[in-house]
Task: inverse folding
């Protein structure tokens, strides 16, 4: 009876080892495809890179810039309940882009940061930067200083919103930035709010905002930090920390053609972790990658 019990334990352990080894063997990088031009996937628990593609190519990062903006705001330890204003120079600094915020109105610094992270409100980033010790130029300098301190050697920031295509980085550098941002509870909270109402003053009005990440809006994924980005020249970008198959993943995808392509890539990464194969991407996505890489790589 004792011998049988020991044999049963050995069989159970062997089976568990086989399943673990078998699953691990499935995670071959030859079996994963992503539609984004650049991808970096990290298992944060194991501090291990699971997959990377074109991760060191420098390219525009659009509104992923706002994650660095948020860290610089929070590093300054300015009162989040203090009212900040929105004015004409803020509008100019977002290249006269559209915003629903009324000129001359005020909002708490914390709320401005909230809508910048969750809904990519560009005017909020300009107002936050202007009302920083030393002003806008000092703020941009602080962003670049912070990037250097984090070892982001291929990153340059020239504005606080990401609207300028000269805000450039790599998927590898963005991974470093997101790891650092994960240490800020406010960034985690603000960036993963599905919907939020901001209450303005002078005059008194309110605006509703929704999260730009469909995975956060739908609340079907366990997302702990999120930021999307888009410019014509940068394509659609996504950086997020989420849980898949018991792993805490940091996913960065840069430059996808379609609006939902980063979400599709997240799904492909999830499928790869579950089954060992991601499935294929479309021929049009492969063509887009080839075209973009020809312009990015010299």
Result:
């Amino acid at each position: 009876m004792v011998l049988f019990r020991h044999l049963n334990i050995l069989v159970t352990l062997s089976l568990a080892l086989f399943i673990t080894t078998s699953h691990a063997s499935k995670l071959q990088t030859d079996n994963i495809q992503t539609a984004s031009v650049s991808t970096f996937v990290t298992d944060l628990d194991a501090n291990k890179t699971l997959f990377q593609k074109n991760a060191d190519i420098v390219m525009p990062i659009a509104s992923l810039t706002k994650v660095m903006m948020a860290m610089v705001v929070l590093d300054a330890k300015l009162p989040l309940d203090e009212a900040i204003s929105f004015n004409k120079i803020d509008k100019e600094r977002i290249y006269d882009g559209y915003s629903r915020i009324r000129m001359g109105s005020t909002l708490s610094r914390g709320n401005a940061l909230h809508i910048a992270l969750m809904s990519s409100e560009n005017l909020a980033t300009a107002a936050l930067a202007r009302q920083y010790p030393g002003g806008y130029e000092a703020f941009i300098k602080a962003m670049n200083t912070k990037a250097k301190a984090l070892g982001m050697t291929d990153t340059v920031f020239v504005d606080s919103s990401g609207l300028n295509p000269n805000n450039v980085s790599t998927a590898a550098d963005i991974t470093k930035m997101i790891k650092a941002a994960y240490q800020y509870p406010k960034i985690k909270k603000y960036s993963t709010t599905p919907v939020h109402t901001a209450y303005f003053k002078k005059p008194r009005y309110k605006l509703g905002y929704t999260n730009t990440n469909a995975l956060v809006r739908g609340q079907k994924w366990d997302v702990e930090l999120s930021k999307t980005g888009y410019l014509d020249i940068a394509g659609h970008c996504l950086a997020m920390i989420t849980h898949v198959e018991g792993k805490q993943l940091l996913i960065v995808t840069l430059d996808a053609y379609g609006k939902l392509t980063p979400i599709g890539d997240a799904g492909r990464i999830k499928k790869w972790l579950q089954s060992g194969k991601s499935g294929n991407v479309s021929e049009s996505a492969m063509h887009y990658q080839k075209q973009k890489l020809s312009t990015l790589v010299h």
About this structure: The longest strand covers residues 235-244. Residues 31-289 form a domain with the Beta-lactamase fold (CATH 3.40.710.10).
